[in-house]
TrEMBL record:
InterPro entries, sorted: Peptidase_S8/S53_dom (IPR000209), Peptidase_S8/S53_dom_sf (IPR036852), Peptidase_S8_Asp-AS (IPR023827), Peptidase_S8_His-AS (IPR022398), Peptidase_S8_Ser-AS (IPR023828), Peptidase_S8_subtilisin-like (IPR050131), Peptidase_S8_subtilisin-rel (IPR015500), S8pro/Inhibitor_I9_sf (IPR037045)
UniProt cross-references to PANTHER family, sorted A to Z: CEREVISIN-RELATED (PTHR43806:SF11), PEPTIDASE S8 (PTHR43806)
Entry's localization field: Secreted
Cofactor: Ca(2+)
Pfam families named among the record's database cross-references: Peptidase_S8 (PF00082), SLH (PF00395)
Source species of the chain: Rossellomorea oryzaecorticis
Family: Belongs to the peptidase S8 family.
Active site: 120, 153, 320
Name of the protein this chain belongs to: S8 family peptidase
Annotated signal peptide: 1-21
Presence of the UniProt keyword Transferase in the record: no
Length: 631
């Protein structure tokens, strides 16, 4: 007797669509011994959701008793209850608070436009948490796999610097930086003077802003020093791991090369308690320290056996892990001050440290624990906020040295503010905004602004929904009103009567309830006045039987007709949607909405004219027709 397989909850690195049944039925996966037995499915009276011909299987919705009937069919191989999959939540590094990498800083300074070379064992090109912009393999032996990492060290370093902010795994210090893999070390983590020279030379030729070198040797290498000095003099910042050969007591000058050279920023490692890791190198050339103990980051997916969990992530310890934190912080400063020289960036970094150990610079901690910082904007530049329920008006003051100002979302998305006023429509709650001032000399400064909004409050609307600002805008202007249950029902289809009420309020029609031309619209109907006013102005005609059918759902084509006529939108251009021919009712009005930037259709090139439109979708189109800022 076959058994129904129990539900398991697994964590994987992707986001599935999870359907929650509204009845006691459950979703099952049914596999068949040979072909799909459609007669057995019909006999069991189950609802087939999808089929998978390749493996002779279907997904069905069924009760336990129906599943049991199906399970007894001789042609059924297995029945399993559909499993639930979830994403692994993205982890924020435990080291970020130590380094003062706050949400404010990382929201605005994400390494945009900064090129970072990672001279190491390569980077895993298939890791879902990393984006590699380019690179090179400079090994003397074969580079058959290009700059693909076959060791793990380089990928771990890359993750600390710039793992993507994509809701999985980890996030790097600067997730938007351009990462370039320079494979100068082989699968054993070994390179030569020749390979390192070639790697640094490539970084110079390809104009890297920063070069991370989590590689060490205990011998002076004059040729390498000359090449690194050349890179530094041409404007490149070079970050090097100080080495893991320190003594427990911290005695002696043990900083290794190339970190020991003055043109390289030598980085030591501290633990979670901000105490030097016992193996971290010490000496007068040590410049900064950063977290380097049990650092969780990316490793190659293929052959991931570092910690017994094949997931592409693991913990590593050492100054090699500390150096990329400094590289990331420098990238954030470089983004803020792109024209600064390497020495100026080092000075900024040196003026923002947490002093550890003996006062001032010392051989154990250098200048101290590096700190990210958002430097205050120069005088004459500020942002004031005025809150009026769901409408927030920002006044942006800027000096003559400012070229333009951007508003930056919490995910780093940016848009330029065209004038000195910016208006946002939001629900009740605390909202954070970031204004990024771009100076004519290339400097940027960020101004974070928090606002507290008291209303509106809708039980079924949140700020994370993309259409929320449009619905709040319409509500603020008295166009969209909520229901008695406190919601706005954004996913419900909108009726013809509701649509007329919204449009009528938007264009200022007379909404006083009264008798109308249509025999199915009584004077007591809430939208009777708007319907009659729209009829009087020939915005609507109704049906040939003198009905309006106010309770009937509005289609997308009807929406286009209504909005185009209400706002007098016209166009002579042809419609480009594959499912909208010239013979379709609403063809010219759909063209008008396209020409007015009110609609772009769906990504598959369709408009879906006969599909009912939801309240939220209608609100978006109406807000765009009413206010160009929403286009």
């Amino acid at each position: 007797m076959k058994k129904i397989i129990a539900v398991l909850s697994l964590l994987l690195l992707y986001i599935p669509l999870i359907v929650h049944a509204e009845t006691s039925d459950r979703e099952y996966i049914v596999t068949f011994i040979e072909d799909i037995d459609w007669n057995a499915l019909h006999t069991a009276k189950v609802e087939v959701l999808d089929s998978y011909e390749v493996i002779s299987a279907v997904s069905v919705k069924a009760s336990e008793s129906e599943a049991a009937v199906l399970n007894d069919s001789p042609r059924v191989s297995t029945i399993q209850e559909s499993k639930t999959y979830e994403i692994r939540d993205q982890q924020i590094s435990k080291s970020f608070p130590m380094l003062n990498i706050t949400p404010d800083i990382q929201t605005v300074y994400r390494g945009t436009g900064v090129k970072i070379g990672i001279l190491d064992t390569g980077v895993d090109l298939k890791h879902p948490d990393l984006k590699v912009n380019g690179g090179i393999c400079v090994l003397e032996e074969s580079c058959t796999r290009g700059y693909q990492d076959d060791n793990g060290h380089g990928t771990h370093v890359a993750g600390v610097i710039g793992a993507l902010d994509n809701e999985i795994g980890v996030v790097g210090v600067v997730p938007d930086a351009g990462l370039y893999a320079i494979k100068a070390m082989d699968s054993t983590g070994t390179g030569t003077t020749a390979t390192i020279l070639a790697g640094v030379e490539w970084a110079i030729e390809n104009k890297m802003d920063i070069l991370n070198m989590s590689v060490t040797t205990d011998q002076d290498d004059p040729a390498l020093k000359q090449m690194i000095d050349r890179a530094y003099n041409e404007g490149m910042l070079i970050v090097g791991a100080a080495g893991n050969n320190g003594t427990k007591s911290g005695d002696g000058d043990t900083v290794l090369y190339p970190a020991r050279y003055s043109s390289v920023i030598a980085v030591g490692a501290v633990n979670d308690n901000q105490v030097r890791v016992a193996s971290s190198a010490t000496g007068n050339s040590l410049e900064f320290v950063a977290p380097g103990y049990n650092i969780y980051s990316t490793v190659p997916l293929a052959g991931d056996s570092f910690d017994g969990i094949r997931d592409g992530y693991t913990y590593m310890t050492g100054t090699s892990m500390a150096a990329p934190y400094i590289t990331g912080i420098i990238a954030a400063y470089k983004e803020q001050f792109p024209s600064s020289t390497p020495q100026q960036i080092r000075d900024i970094l040196g003026s923002n440290v947490k002093d550890l150990g003996a006062a001032g610079r010392d051989p154990l901690y250098g200048k101290g624990l590096a700190q990210a910082a958002m430097l205050p904007v120069p005088e004459g530049n500020a942002v004031q906020a005025k809150v009026d329920n769901g409408k927030v008006t920002f006044t942006i003051n800027k000096s003559e040295e400012v070229e333009y100002v951007e508003i930056v979302s919490s995910k780093g998305e940016k848009s330029v503010i065209e004038d000195n006023i910016k208006i946002e429509y939001v629900l009740a709650g605390t909202h954070k905004y970031y204004f990024k001032y771009h100076f004519k000399d290339g400097r940027t400064y960020s101004v974070p602004v928090s606002v507290e909004v008291k209303k509106p409050i809708f039980t079924d609307l949140s700020s994370t929904q993309w259409f929320s600002p449009h619905m709040v805008y319409l509500n603020y202007h008295g166009i969209l009103k909520g229901y008695k249950d406190g919601g706005v029902h954004p996913y419900e289809s909108i009726t013809r009567g509701e649509a007329l009420a919204l449009v009528g309020r938007a264009i200022g029609l007379d909404g006083e309830q009264r008798s109308s031309y249509f025999k199915d619209v009584e004077s007591s109907y809430f939208a009777s006045g708007y319907i009659q006013s729209a009829f009087d102005q020939t915005i609507i005609k109704g049906f040939s039987d003198q009905t309006f059918r106010p309770g009937q759902n509005v289609t997308r084509a009807e929406m286009a007709i209504l909005i185009a006529k209400a706002f007098n939108l016209k166009s002579n251009k042809e419609v480009v949607f594959s499912d909208v021919g010239k013979s379709i009712s609403g063809y010219s009005e759909i063209a008008a909405l396209i020409d007015s930037s009110i609609t772009r259709g769906f990504s598959d090139g369709t408009f879906r004219p006969y599909q009912p439109i939801t309240r939220s979708e209608f609100a978006v189109f109406l807000a765009r027709a009413k206010n160009a800022d929403f286009k």
